[in-house]
Amino acid sequence: MKRVCALALCAVASPAFANTYVVTIEQMRFDPPTLTVHRGDEIVWVNKDLVAHTASSDTQGFDSRSIAAGASWRYRAGTPGRYTYRCIFHPTMHGTLTVQPAR
Ligand SMILES: [Cu+2]
Question: For all residues of the chain together, what is the average pLDDT?
Answer without folding.
Answer: 89
